[in-house]
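Last lecture ended with a question: if I hand you only a sequence, what can you say about the shape of the protein? Today we answer it with a concrete record. The protein is Interleukin-1 receptor-associated kinase. Below, first the input exactly as provided, then the predicted structure, then a couple of comments.
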Amino acid sequence: MMTNSDQYYSFWSFGVFFFLSLCPSFGLNIDGTLLLSFKYSVLEDPLSFLDNWDYNDATPCLWTGVTCAPDMFRVISLVLPNSKLIGSILEELGFIQHLHTIDLSNNFLNGTLPVSLLNASELQVLSLSNNAISGELTESIGGLKSLKVLNLSVNAFVGNLPQKLSFLQNIKVVSLSKNLFSGGFQFVEVLDLSSNLLNGALPDNFDGDSLKYLNFSSNKLSGLVSPQFAKKIPANAAIDLSFNSLTGEIPESIDLSNQKTEFFAGNTDLCGKPLKKLCTIPSTPSSPPNITTNPPAIAAIPK
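The predicted structure:
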């Protein structure tokens, strides 16, 4: 059964391609027309990076920030980081059929992520860090079948992490730090979820075989670092659990013992070898004294 967002996406997709089919064959190609929609949505371009984006060109392959496949003049890359662009990301970008890379990091883009962009099946790199993009990261992200790198750090995303993020078989690097995410999490090779609102306990069961770097610092994680969690951490993986509310003794495993001390700092009730802080041994109640039925001897009181 189609959701409202799916119906909207299907209607929008049909409308865009119907409009493009009416464009004259001798004008700018489809990918260029879609990119121009993004240009016109940009409110300010102080460094004039988009000045040579012109409708009179046959293709956008010589435009600033645009790369085309050499054999078919189709856009495969849009890279405009640090360009001080002010605007939003339109649905049209998601309809560029062979787009492999989008890097619009370190700009002033706002609004939400369009559904079409999360259904771009050939997209491999999506980097939108250091912008002002808000809203939830929806389950539509499951449409990014080819995604390898996802960097949405330093934005204003909210809500739970989508479960379908863990279903993306090709993904290797996920950086979602400094947002307002909460809920659960899954594992890849590199996962940075620092400075969010993650709460609850560390999971005892997760697929961490490929993990090389995990950063959960500056969240609201609580409870024990269980031996089951420790066993799932691969050798030589870096695990940053600093500045949470974790408690108890850090399990004595080779992987955790080799972590830097600062990776456990800021958890006031955490102790163990990596912190060089001994754990308090709880005292056990002593055995009660033997009680006899004989009455105690009473010394004679002199007159």
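Comments.
1. The chain has four helices and 18 strands.
2. The longest helix spans residues 4-21.
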